[in-house]
Amino acid sequence: MGSLSSSFTLKAQVVLADKNYIKQISNIFRKSNIDIDGLVPNTLAQRNLILDNNELNDNVMLLDIGAGNTDIGVFEGSSFVYTNTIPLGGDNITNDIEIVLNISRDEADRLKKQYSLAMKSFIDNDTDILLNTYTGESKSRTIKSSELIEIIEARIEEIFTLVNKDVTAQGIKQRINNVILTGQGITNINKSDVAGKIILNIPVKIATGRLISTISPEYRSAYALVRYVAARPFAKNVSSNIDSGEQEGFFKNLIERIKEFFYS
Asked: How far apart are CA 118 and CA 157, in angstroms?
């Protein structure tokens, strides 16, 4: 204590984000009279929620494939090594089905969920599917389930291929021992882990973290962010509008609504 130094070394990672996106987020909260004290990468926040005890100490890549984006997070034990976002997700699969089969978006989403298989080679029974909202000239069309699954497979293959190219280009792929999948865009599609393993050539599994089953899938990212921030050392003494008296009623109501979302 009391020592002086002319220099110091800091080991850190600089996380970049789209400036316009950050500006939009900031404006939304500013209009609600809420100060933003920091921004947290999604995969960093989800680490303790998604990974089990063994995975927390391993070199893993966490892939959160949501509706519109695929978030990549690479960890070496407790060290956050790399993060990136690929603008593809489950909604792109729905869009593909809608456009290729010329049907409504609602029917495309229903078929994706009903025939949720990531690889055509795993089809047990190639059944007929009547397209109820087909808008072609014949006004009626029947396809094989293999045709539908081929559309799903193509987009899933693209997502994993882009992830593979990204981590390879960063020179970190060879250090990854396991890949953990999470996100509504992929985990409800059977054999998605097998497809990922084939393309990435790394063991892939669906997330089995102990807290996953307690939180509804659509709220996991939000819950993970709140949980991560609440656990930070600065969380209780951060300087912001949150402690002002005039905001007390607003934030009390906000917290109650968050609890209702997470646990109802």
From this structure: 9
Number of DSSP helices (H) and strands (E) in the chain, helices first? 9, 7
Tell me the torsion sign for CA atoms 206, 212, 217, 221. Answer: negative
182 strand-pairing partners: 64
Buried b (16+ CB within 10 A) or exposed e, 158-170: bbbebbbebbeee
Residue corresponding to tokens 């949980």: 227
- For 59-90, how does the pLDDT look when each residue is reduced to its tens digit (9 = 90+)? 999 999 999 999 999 999 988 999 999 999 99
Q: What is the pLDDT of residue 165?
A: 97
Fold classified for 38-210:
Nucleotidyltransferase; domain 5 (3.30.420)
For residues 53 and 120, the answer to whether their CB atoms sit within 8 Å is no
